[in-house]
Amino acid sequence: MTEGKGFWHVRKTSKEKVLEAAVELFYAKGYANTSVREIASRATVNVALISYHFNGKQGLLETLMTTFFDGYIGALEKECEKVTNSTNSIRSHLESACRSMLLFQQQFDVLSRFVHREMTLDSILVREIMSSYLTKERHLFRYLLEEAFAQGEMITPVNEYMIIQLRGLLTLPFLHSQYIREVHYMVASESYFLDRYFETVRKWLDAHIGEPSIV
């Protein structure tokens, strides 16, 4: 069985069972090497149900990708929305966003690993996600960092390399989970690892923004 936590609820609907089966098989065998019949068999549903809900394997892939990014970037967007009426420092909002994004990936670690791996490929779907979800992610990170600079929490003006570094820190444990396991003998989906790893993220924030504070 593929390592990782369940996709959604404990008592899953047929549609959720299909999505969970799909991500497990796509991750283990690859998208191209997985058939709709295999997905239906693992989910214990009729093949026709997959066609009805997702219009085939490509529709399943698109649903998995958008489901991941809705949750992952949604955690960042939620924190950005709090800034206007907040008395907390921008640093505290950025730290909260980073932790929420890491926790989301930990909760859905198989989905996260699959999506990050898929995003290294060149396809029409990946390009569409780059131009929509990932462009939005870049904009939201830049917004928080520029607000921190405007409010005097940062000395150095924001640049693209900072955004690339920060995003890399947040995705690395799930993009390179096999490397972490085989070379460092750690499991990225475990809470102990994530707690310790988050301290590294906090040190990055310390270096660029400083300690969180409440006004």
UniProtKB/TrEMBL annotation:
Tell whether DNA-binding is among the UniProt keywords.
yes
For this protein, the record's Pfam families field holds: TetR_N (PF00440)
Look up the domain of life of the source: Bacteria
Query: Looking at the keywords, is Nuclease present?
Result: no
The record's section on SUPFAM superfamilies has: Homeodomain-like
Residue span, HTH tetR-type domain: 12-72
Keywords of the record: DNA-binding
PROSITE patterns, sorted: HTH_TETR_1, HTH_TETR_2
What positions does the DNA-binding region cover?
35-54
Q: Single GO molecular-function term?
A: DNA-binding transcription factor activity
Question: Known InterPro entries for this protein?
Answer: DNA-bd_HTH_TetR-type_CS (IPR023772), Homeodomain-like_sf (IPR009057), HTH-type_TetR-like_transc_reg (IPR050109), HTH_TetR (IPR001647)
Residue stretches in coiled coil: none
| Protein name (record) | Forespore capture DNA-binding protein RefZ
Which organism's genome codes for this protein? Paenalkalicoccus suaedae
